[in-house]
Amino acid sequence: MKTYLLKSFTLSSLLLAVALSASAQSVGRKFVINIPHTPDTTKLHVFFPERAKATGRAVLDCPGGGYSHLSMQNEGTDWADFFCQKGAALAVLQYRMPKGDHDVPLSDAKEAMRILRDSAAQWGLNPYDIGVMGFSAGGHLASTLSTHAEWSVRPNFSILFYPVVTMEKKGQHEGSCRNLLGKQRDDEELIKAFSNNRQVRRHLTPQAIILLANDDTGVPPVTNGIAYYTAMRNAGNPCALYVYPKGGHGFGIKKTFPYHEQMMTDLGTWLDNLKAPQQDAIRVACIGNSITDGSGIDMAETKGYPAQLQRILGEQYHVRNFGVGARTLLNKGDHPYMKELAWRDALAFNPNVVIIKLGTNDSKTENWKYREEFATDYQMMIDSLKALPANPRIFLACPIKAFQDRWTITDKVITEEVAPIIYKVAENNQLEVIDFHDTITDTAMMVSDGIHPNDKGAALMAKKAAEAILSTPPTPTKKIKKTKKKK
After folding, report:
1. Assign residue 31 a region: left if phi > 0, alpha if psi is -120 to 50, beta otherwise?
2. Angstrom distance (rounded) from CA 24 to CA 53
3. What is the H or E stretch that residue 357 is in?
4. Are the beta carbons of 351 and 286 closer than 8 angstroms?
5. What would the pLDDT profile of 124-167 be if each residue is shown by its tens digit?
6. Which of 6, 100, 153, 241 is deepest in the core (most CB within 10 A)?
7. pTM higher than the cut 0.70
8. Distance between CA atoms of 475 and 453, rounded to whole angstroms?
9. H helices of 208-256, where?
């Protein structure tokens, strides 16, 4: 990754880089850099904690201002002392106003995040612990970065203060909408795209904390901050919501906010309990359909099999859930996995270990008519994973048992046709197989549809996967023993 050297410093910037802040004793150093490929007014104001306090965490701050101006102090630089006391760096983004071009602020935020990630080694940051914070329209920008950005610049967590979320006419902040979308503010596709509560993605949208006042008449809480919380909760993504009885809009870090001390404590406690993966942790990607995703399990992000696998493996591993419901391995299936954002994210994650659990939806009548292409499409997926820099250890998983015939999914097709192909593909590539089919043998471990495991079934899957991951890999010349035979 490239490193952003501070070549564009003015003399005053250099002096700031070595000077302790008189007003914020926890700030060890600070500097200002220009955002590449933007006007000189687009800057990143970076504050680092004292070395002894540094944890490697960083927060990209997007001040508010209705997409017409920026509240650079109350919602920006005045927060430096708080975060530096927590051992986190704060980078306040002085971004461009959209003036009707919705891509402008987002491109600045992406570039700022790219700077933080690319400079992580030089600046002592953990690239897996870089979040975004936004206020009002800046909260919209922060949530846009969280829901629209590609993996490399998507934040690891979001802090949203009284955020603008919706672009819908009912409940919108009119000024932010007008300034962001301009003449296109009645375009239904753009309204949907930038109503960020409608863009939350299960497992992929980073966890968030939302803080607002109940009497906010500027940005209605129910259609904005609470709507984002609702979308996150419905997706099963971790999210916290704090609604204070009064305080209006734009309180930021002002001590005149009636609940200032409580708010600072709430945010601090949330940050203290926000655990980041170790930088050198072994990365594990769980690829799959709704069974990996955790369909039927409330809060699958904490109770699904990938989450339980994380707890078994411990902090030396970094497990991510890339499951998407209803997806097929077959590229001609009704919902091909390799066309999903989750697949692109899984590749960008550059995993050291991969578990592929696909095939259940492929067994459907409408999909299995393309059975002759199943092995070829599987090979395409494997080849893409093999080409990754991490050279991952790849496990192919045999689908779990279908206890009921549902949606034309039948266990007969899974055991007699899908599984033998999976074992053959594994043998051809000298890959290991995890037999999830024989792992769950009791309907008590399944939800009522007989297709998806419940949290107890997910626990058995996690245990089976952990045993495989912790086992010694076979030598490259040793072929995988076939345990499934066509009946």
Report:
1. beta
2. 14
3. strand 353-357
4. no
5. 999 999 999 999 999 999 999 999 999 999 999 999 999 999 99
6. 153
7. yes
8. 33
9. 225-235
